[in-house]
Amino acid sequence: MSRSLLVTGAAGFIGANFVHYWRAQHPQDRLVAYDALTYAGNRANLASLEGSADFHFVHADICDHDRVLATLREFDVDTLVHFAAESHVDRSISGPDAFIETNVVGTHSLLKAARAHWLGGDAPRPHRFHHVSTDEVYGSLAPDAPGFHEQQKYEPNSPYSASKAASDHLVRAYHHTYGLQVTTSNCSNNYGPFHFPEKLIPLCLTNILRGLPLPVYGDGSNIRDWLYVEDHCRGIEKVLLQGVVGETYNIGGNNEWNNLAIVELLCEQVDARFAADPQLAQRFPDAPAARGATAHSLVQFVEDRAGHDWRYAIDAAKAGRELGYTPAESFESGLAKTIDWYLANEDWWRPLLVK
């Protein structure tokens, strides 16, 4: 049976990876990519799909309820996968309004349109609304505390995480109040291809190649659970195909690393690439390895940001037990794939860098 999927935020990092993954796994399905193309949305992420059968791109804002509803009707959408979100914590601290507008008001706009399309007729239409959220809604963990589980109390500590927590609650409410068929997944930190270069891994990777400082907050001891983006896409697929309506599933990578250790591993792997491939020194003459130095020499500790949660970790046991989910990549293997992708796609990331 073929499906018609609307993917919001489809030109962003995780959304684009999901669109490519779903097309490869389910070529018979229609894919409708919906994105406002704000600073982190890049239509080039989907360029290889443009013009292909049953792929459509809609340039629009999720806050535009009428446009969302018209899109659901035009393409007879039966599955909505909601990635669209403002997601950079630092930006939420300096400018929280956009996060409330997109993450709360935008999610509510989608829910209203989905309800009208799927539940507004004489009989409910088969459907699924899948909401993609974050582990940051749970707050911060102590050093020896177990990972976040699905019944964890919400304790968001930044405007970003608070806005995502609010959207989670709205999705739950539309299921319990109106009977909308929803699922939610809360994931740990993603990394991989198409990652916008303001985030830690792509920022440090592209800075190494340009010989720029590698900023590490505080003493670098903050810990995150890292999830290779294709493993995340695989987890969402399992929720869509096997998940129980109304349930939440945590999707994690079983990879806890502190920020400094991540930067150090990245430095080691990039230096190793330069040692193995002399052409890299010609392509990136400003990289430390091109002049006989180490990437680690670029590490620079900077003032910690406000409200910086110390540790996140996901307990993905429920997804493993009920859906058979397990990440395929270790952090080392996923990071190696990420570095290879950025080295092979300089023409993608170079125009996105802050001048």
TrEMBL record:
Q: What is this protein called?
A: dTDP-glucose 4,6-dehydratase
One GO biological process term is: nucleotide-sugar metabolic process
What family does the database annotate? Belongs to the NAD(P)-dependent epimerase/dehydratase family. dTDP-glucose dehydratase subfamily.
Reaction catalysed? dTDP-alpha-D-glucose = dTDP-4-dehydro-6-deoxy-alpha-D-glucose + H2O
Q: What is its EC number?
A: 4.2.1.46
Q: Which gene encodes it?
A: rfbB
- Provide this UniProt record's keywords sorted from A to Z: Lyase, NAD
| EC supergroup of this enzyme | lyase
Alphabetized Gene3D superfamilies for the sequence: NAD(P)-binding Rossmann-like Domain, UDP-galactose 4-epimerase, domain 1
Top-rank taxon, per record: Bacteria
Q: Where is the NAD(P)-binding domain?
A: 6-337
User: What GO molecular function terms would the record report?
Assistant: dTDP-glucose 4,6-dehydratase activity
Cofactor or coenzyme needed: NAD(+)
